Amino acid sequence: MAQCVQSVQEFVQDSFVPMVAVLCSEEAERVTRKNNLNFAELLRPFCRLTSEGHIRDPNNQLQVVKNLRICVNNLMTSPTTTSTSPSPAQRQLLSDVVLSCQPQESAVTNVVMAGDYELNFSVTTPWFEAYRENFLQSMPASDHEFLNHYLACLLVVSSTEAVPVEQFLKLSQEQHRIQHSGEYTNPKWFIPNTLKYYVLLHDMCEGDEQRADLVYEDMKQRYGSQGCYLLKMNSRTFSANVDEQIPDPWSQYLHKNNLHNQVNIANSSTCTGCFIYSSDEMSSSLDPLQLDSSMANLHNLSAVHADLKKGAKDSNSPACAAGSHGACLTLNDHDYIRQFIQEFTFRGLLPHIEKTIRQLNDQLVSRKGLSRSLFTATKKWFGGGKAPEKSISEPKSTFGLLYPPEAPELQIRKMADLCLLVQHYDLAYSCYHTAKKDFLSDQAMLYAAGALEMAAVSAFLQGGASRPYPAHYMDTAIQTYRDVCKNMVLAERCALLSAEILKSQGKYSDAATLLIKMTSEDSDLRSALLLEQAAHCFINMRNPMVRKFAFHMILSGHRFSKAGQRRHALRCYCQAMQVYKERGWSLAEDHINFTIGRQSFTLRQPEDAVTAFRQILINDSRQTAKQQGAFLREYLYVYKSGVLTVSLPQLPLPCIHSSATRVYFGHERRLAEGEKQAATHVSLDQEYDQDLSAMWCHLEEQLVASANGGVVPGNFQPTQCCLNSQTDNLRHPLAVVEEPIIVEVTFRNPLKVSLALSSLSLLWRFTVDGSSSSNEMTEETITNEETSAVGVGNMNKYTIQEFHLGPEETKMVIRNHIDFLLFTDQQTLDLMVRGKQDLNILGPRLNLTKEDKMSVRHGPDRRLNPIITPPMPLMEVFFLQFPTALLCGEIRKAYVEFCNVSGVALCGLRVVSTHAAFFTFGSQATTPLSPTSAENCSAYKTLATPLQRTSEATESLVSAADFRQPSGVIEIPIDGSILQPGQSTQLPLWLRGPDQEGVHEINFLFYYESAEKGLKISHRVLRHTVFICASRSLSIQASACRSSVPPHHCLDEKGSSGTLVFIDVENINTNEGGVREFHIVQVSSSSQHWRLHKYINPNKDKECKLGSRERAKLCFRAARCKPSEATSKAVKKYTFSDLSLGNEQIISSTTPCGDFFFRCLTLETQEAYGASSRISSVSRSQGSIPTENRSSDLTDIAKECSELDLNIIVIWKAYVVEDNKQLILEGQLHVALQTIGKEASSLTAKEEAQEMVLLKFKSDLPPPVILPSAEFCQLIKTNLHYPETCTHPFVQESLCLVPVTLTLSNCSLAQVDVIIDLRHKSTSPESLEVHSSFAWVGQTQYKLQLKPKEVLCLTLQACFLQAGVYNLNTPRVFAKPSEQSTMCETSQQTATPALIVISDA
Amino acid sequence: MAVCIAVIAKENYPLYIRSVPTQNELKFHYTVHTSLDVVEEKISAVGKALGDQRELYLGLLYPTEDYKVYGYVTNSKVKFVIVVDSSNTSLRDNEIRSMFRKLHNSFTDVMCNPFHNPGDTIQSKAFDGIVSGMMVQTA
């Protein structure tokens, strides 16, 4: 129960006060009317006595009467009988009182902390107190109790009357008639001879004061000085000194109690009657359409109400311009009135009561009340005549018998009531107690309940410890009233009293139970108020029961809304909401929100309604689709009704994933235009990929570096065309004027019902020069032409884009993007609301400083705040005849077109790619097209070779600088290097299929800048991504070996130059249908030191054809380049030598063959470098450094010796059948031969295996000191020269001596010590027998030193014993570089047999 | 059998609520929520008297016109509430107690699931099955 202004004692005491009636003459009425009051109202503020009175009880004990209040009412007669329920007018009045008493906005609210709940609500409930006060005052006087029966009557006559005494007489008779004629039942009188008090009213301004005094004297004589009074008032004229401020004590009594203002009641009752009707209709209606009509009703009503009020004011205004009461009364007059009341009470009323009590007491004593009750009991016990004075006419009512007014049982009750009124609670209690027993024994339940109630009240008011408060009396009384007597009014009064008393004793739980029990279906208002009080009880308990509080608040709110008290209902729901909010009780929360929304709406607080509905819609509610639909309709209806003044409301739906917003700067690109294929660039369709963007950024860095002379400027920022949540959004993005900005917004519909959106557009705002001050902030809307209704499916994410913005002015900053949404519910298409949603993007959460980590902070996100810059060039790139599939190594020619589509010239065109070897623009020096290649559609530059085929190579010398670009960045050779606006240029582009099969993603990044310098955007880039499917073509394996032909056989060359190159070509193409055959057209070599010299199998068909899975072996002789050419190392010159196998020669040193060769070369060397560094680092980590040092120069020598560094280019043609047409594809494959004896392949797939290095937990044993490595085998080349056959007559001569020449040639560039041991016997078993039959004779061991490149011949002699075939290759040659201390002897000869046939002659 | 079974987290938000007449769900939510006051009252009263030796079963929390509300609190302050139709007089205290025990066991199983995030609403089929078994079977 809420806190009250009054204390409990005060409240209970004031609930039962002596009633005094007023009967006024017309003239007196007129006098008081001057003050805009009637007489009773005039007295009301002064009805509480400030001084103490005294009364003597029947035992002649003096009893103090403190703080007594009397109640003065105009005497009104009404024929109505008492009813058990309040009349409609009363109900109306109570409803009005509650309605008018609303909590102030600024009312003090208390914060109650209960557990983890923090509740904020007002602890006082003035509406409840007002209700209670009015309820108690409007209690109809009933027969079973006398508390609100009139004790006295004031007869008021004005002194201006002609004959005042006559008037008094008339009034007195009138009173007598009312009381005793029996016509009127309603004003009930306490005792038959009511105290009449005669009051002469004298108006100081009008009448003659002396005359009044005279009349008063006369009255005194007539009625005694204690029975009359002269009241002088109206001391000041109405018009005079209006400005004087007189306190208005009436206002607080009259504004909430207009019970006696009949006109007002009539007015308001009709009006509020309608109101209730309409609001009932509203609360019951669920349909928004009905709501509409009731809204209209409400509106009309309020207008009527206002009119009525105005009318009332108008009628009142002449009487009281200031609108205040007591305008003619001075402060002295107030004192007079106070004095009058005091006089009346102490001189008239109290003595009268004292006298009455005494009389009643005497009666009771004489009747021996106590024994009488015993007597009736025994009478009843023995079945004597029951209920002596019971009225026959009275129907046998449910609540027992009724006593006639003069029944002796009632006398004791009457006395008790009187005692209670004059605060003699002790006596009152004992009387009530006695009466209770009497009534109970008579089964007069109503009377008994009344006595019980009052006994409890008087026991409570007695105070002190004399008697404990009998709470059960009250409970019994309430139960009796309610259940037996069906008198809800009395039960309610009893409950109100009891609850208040229980509350004062801290028994909140009991009070709450009591109050909740009193709720019933018959009165919503009462139920609501009592439930609310019960809720307050719960929260006031020692352990506050928050949830019970909340629940009962909701129940109360429900009843309030049923009772038409919408404002109270809303308040209750709002208070309950505090408990349910954000605690997971979503169903309840939704319900409360919904009710709040609805109530707010009907109370014309649409903003609150919107917030409440919003809550429901935003929360991922678990409601059914139907329910959600209702919520949505209701929500939209609020907007639809047009109550809201906001032109574009913020809509909660659909949810915007603001962080998923993507902003794209630039035009949407067409991907293809006829044959042309546009650069893919960036589009919104692409998903953001971290690695990919890093790759692009890296490429751009390369471009910028090359444009700025190799250095990346410090303020370099990668260009971002499409911004999303993952990109770096800290900077303001730069947008170019007249280029569109596309914003993609992601919506989500959290509801289970579908939403339809239409006419979406972006709202934006721009600021000139970006400074926030002194600029025009215009808000412009550009409606989008693509106003398509897009249905957002159930629970689906939907992306709607196409918001084009075209800023007209340079240097603008687009500030806020706001969406317009037009909302429709699909079922009811008329519910359409136009609203907006803000796009506020939070940046990523900061996590750097401690503060950032402790709290949630977000960085800025400037995705949507671009800076518009002056025009920039815009380039479009198209590709023509661009293939999608290539054979590995295939060369294809395509064209690329650059278009400047902007109004500004562009320059500095560059491109970089992830696959540098994939394409070339050709070098400018070597681009001219030869006529033959144009004929054949060949990409190569060819020369027709003369018919006589030579196996000799043609040679050309080319500097690498002609082909090589310093980095991967290629400057695009366009004419004049500037592309004027609107101009376009087409360039040829050669492509070479990647060496590895599979699908290759190849990224190009084109770079260009404005011809103007110093712009905000330094450059622009254009991306292009292609996918090339490479299929297998040929596999080429090449190996080189020294020819075993002794040097003097090849006359033109000297030393070890005789190197053979074997090339294995295999057709590994798997596409049998498509590719018919491969032709090896030409084999070229390119090297700084070596060249292919001669094609060795000239006797066969020159053209080498390879069908599917066929393999061919080609053999070439390679030779060193001429030293003069080779030695000039400062300029890296490459010797290209072409060996054409067909009938036309391709000049390999020109575009595109040379280009691709060099591109591949740079790539390979880079890779090789990487690999070697990797290996060396591995080997270094394995330790064994001392041996490494020693052997390093050794290996150098060996390496140098066997180094070859010959690059072989195999150019082929493939005959492909496609769509019944034969196509000839061309291509080239590269093989780099590094060392002699090592096989090199065009397929590099197996290299991967090297990267895996096994982890070793045990350290390896140190490798042997002497490396018998194969490298040293190549130091010395040996040749045996001997006659192949020898006929010898063994018969004549048993020994056959054959001279054998051993040629030793030093291949290395160092001095080499050589040991030749002929004595050596091979241990291999199969050679044993052979050896036994022949022996070397003469010097069998040689120790020689060979200078670099020296060739030495030794003549040996072999001795044969018999005929046969012998292997002469038994000499063992050991060599070591001469500086080397240790002899690392290695057999220098591979064990190829050198056979000699010895035949017997 | 029960008409509504609810599991409430320590922080008094619902982990699981299931009721049989689904159209009256809101009412049961309110009832269960309101019962938490009584549960708290009982816990605080018992806590003082017995200390750690606390009986988990709280007994009848309060009767309403139509229902009886029973409560049970685990040691981790997770509350189980079972609402039973008042007209159902066949249910004895012991049966309610065993229902709670069953519920508690099943709840423990849910909590033991390594994939269950404590504090999340319960979405276990096994738990659902146990609860369904205890509910009034509507034909």
TrEMBL record, chain A:
The TPPC8 C-terminal Ig-like domain covers which part of the protein? 1275-1376
Q: Where is the TPPC8 first Ig-like domain?
A: 685-887
Please provide, in alphabetical order, the Gene Ontology terms of the cellular component aspect for this entry.
Answer: TRAPPIII protein complex
What positions does the domain TPPC8 second Ig-like occupy? Answer: 888-1022
One Pfam match, given by its short name, reads Ig_TPPC8_C
For this protein, the record's InterPro entries field holds: Ig_TPPC8_1st, Ig_TPPC8_2nd, Ig_TPPC8_3rd, Ig_TPPC8_C, TPR-like_helical_dom_sf, TRAPP_III_complex_Trs85
Where in this chain does the record put each TPPC8 third Ig-like domain? 1025-1231
Q: Could you name the domain of life of the organism this protein comes from?
A: Eukaryota
User: Which protein are we looking at?
Assistant: Trafficking protein particle complex subunit 8
Name its species.
Oreochromis niloticus (Nile tilapia)
Automatic annotation (TrEMBL), chain B:
Q: Which Gene3D superfamilies match?
A: 3.30.450.70
As recorded in Swiss-Prot or TrEMBL, the protein's gene is named TRAPPC2L
InterPro entries attached here?
A: Longin-like_dom_sf, Sedlin, TRAPPC2L
Q: Where found in the cell? A: Cytoplasm, Perinuclear region
Tell me the keywords, alphabetical order: ER-Golgi transport, Transport
Q: Which Pfam families match?
A: Sedlin_N
Any one Gene Ontology biological process term? endoplasmic reticulum to Golgi vesicle-mediated transport
Q: What lineage, starting at the top, does this entry show?
A: Eukaryota, Metazoa, Chordata, Craniata, Vertebrata
Q: Does this UniProt record's set of keywords contain Transport?
A: yes
Keyword Transport appears in the UniProt entry: yes
Entry GO CC? perinuclear region of cytoplasm
Protein name per Swiss-Prot or TrEMBL: Trafficking protein particle complex subunit 2-like protein
Family to which the UniProt record says this protein belongs: Belongs to the TRAPP small subunits family. Sedlin subfamily.
Q: What is its main location?
A: cytoplasm
- Please give the SUPFAM superfamilies that the UniProt record associates with this protein: SNARE-like
- What top-level branch of life does the organism fall under? Eukaryota
Q: Which organism is it from?
A: Oreochromis niloticus (Nile tilapia)
